[in-house]
Amino acid sequence: MPDQATLNHAAQVIAGISADQRADTALRFHFEGRRYLGAREKRAITQAVFAYFRWLSWLEPKASPQKRVEQALALHERFRTDEKAVKAEALAVRAVPDWVAGEMDLPADYLRQLQREPALWLRARPGRAHALAKSLFAGETTKLAPDAVRFTGTQDLFKTEQFKTGEFEIQDLASQFVGLACNPQPGQTWWDACAGEGGKTLHLADLMFNKGVIWATDRNFKRLDTLKRRAARAKLFNYRTALWDGSAKLPTKTKFDGILVDAPCSGVGTWQRNPHARWSTTPDDVRELAATQLALLNHVAGSLKPGGRLIYAVCTLTRSETTAVADAFTAAHPGLTPEPVLEKSPQLFLWPHELNANGMFIAAWSRQG
Ligand SMILES: C[S@@+](CC[C@H](N)C(=O)[O-])C[C@H]1O[C@@H](n2cnc3c(N)ncnc32)[C@H](O)[C@@H]1O
Questions:
Q1: Is residue 241 assigned to a domain?
Q2: Entry pTM
Q3: Which one, 3, 19, 52, 164, has the greatest CB density within 10 A?
Q4: Ligand 1 centroid to 209 CA: how many Å?
Q5: 143 and 238: one domain?
Q6: Which of 218, 241, 249 to mutate to test ligand 1, by most ligand atoms within 8 A of the CB atom?
Q7: Residue 106: inside a domain, yes or no?
Q8: Quick check: CB of 76 below 6 Å from ligand 1?
Q9: Are 195 and 230 a contacting pair, CB within 8 Å?
């Protein structure tokens, strides 16, 4: 049973989450103001907050906030010990908001996966996955991706020597497939157009063995600053950063061997890890983001060299942001040919229940000639 202090802290965090805030951000603020909380207490509070949003539609609306957190934890425990105790029909109507059924298929296995604790994936430096798993004492490699390690321990990864010396990045398995789908070669010139904090840039840089150049652009300079710190830790130098707001005014006249558009999206693919977002994301978000995604693709398309490869990735599974964007882009660009992604179809969905990771959509094209 959770103790009263955990329930109180969790209820306080939940009450304080603002409309445009993520639960993990609210938790971070809560902990920053309460340095006396130890690692175990913080873990228990975090689990309670996440369980609350995972089981929200099952909770008694009129119960006190603490009682509702307690109910969520009890439901979560019941599900953990016997997943079949929660019927697939109940999951279909309660685990996700109603509007989602109009945007994507909802297989029972997917809905069940949404209610499980998410796996934590690391990306080791090239060829070092086994060594990393061994040195962390709590990691498993996988045949699915060469450098991926599923972390199964509880230590604070940011405090490990391996993290400080750049031996790994925390990167979801589905995101690692995006880098692998790009398949950049040493010496090439790539553009990571929505580079953010550099998760994919660093992967591309590693795959290029630090040779060639990656233009890493984003509209948010703070994110690019984080990218630079991460690149320094990983000792990766084959990149340059520039601000780009996604408009038709491009940051460079360079023509690229490859372009990655890891576009802003509704994040439906992260709903297992981030259950609060199930209730804060709206159909309007999906509509607006789909328009932004298509505009980003249209704007970068002219920067691809003949023979160059364009990759579109979004960590969402809604039709509007995935196949609809990719199909509209294909129709508008006869000079670009859809290409297989990871030797599969040109439009690839990665499902959380198949990978034990985030959901992701990847599409690819190459410029003729
Ligand atoms: C999915 S995130 C990128 C994550 C990053 N590639 C990584 O692997 O860590 C999308 C990024 O697009 C940026 N973005 C959002 N709208 C944009 C726009 N209109 N133009 C350019 N970048 C934009 C955001 O700042 C955000 O960093």
A1: yes
A2: 0.96
A3: 52
A4: 24
A5: no
A6: 218
A7: no
A8: no
A9: no
Q: For residue 112, is it within any domain? A: no
- Same domain assignment for residues 254 and 350: yes
Per the structure, the complete domain to which residue 129 belongs is given by: 120-170
User: What is the helix, strand, coil percentage profile of the chain, to 5?
Assistant: 45, 15, 35
* 265 belongs to the catalytic site: no
Whether 292 lines ligand 1, by a CB cut-off of 6 Å, is yes
Pocket test residue of 194, 288, 289 for ligand 1, highest count of atoms within 8 A of CB: 194
Where does 210-322 have alpha helices with state H? 221-234, 277-280, 283-301
Instruction: Work out how many domains the chain is built from and give that number.
Output: 3
Residue 208 sits in the same domain as residue 161: no
177 lines ligand 1 (CB under 6 A): no
Quick one: 152 and 191 in the same domain? no
**Residue 264 in contact with ligand 1 by CB distance below 6 A:** yes
Q: What is the dihedral of CA 356, 277, 51, 92, to 10 degrees?
A: -70
Asked, for residue 297, whether it belongs to a domain, the answer is yes
Using one digit for the tens of pLDDT, what is the confidence trace for 65-104? 999 999 999 999 999 999 999 998 999 999 999 999 999 9
Q: What is the CATH number of the domain that holds 235?
A: 3.40.50.150
Evaluate: CB of 109 within 6 angstroms of ligand 1.
no
CA of 326 relative to ligand 1 center, distance in Å: 18
Whether 215 contacts 252, CB under 8 Å: yes
What is the pLDDT at residue 117? 94
Rounded CA separation 121/101 (Å): 28
Element (H, E) at 313: strand 304-314
Give the residue carrying structure tokens 């991706």.
145
Whether 133 and 149 have beta carbons less than 8 Å apart is answered as yes
pLDDT tens digits along 207-262: 999 999 999 999 999 999 999 999 999 999 999 999 999 999 999 999 999 999 99
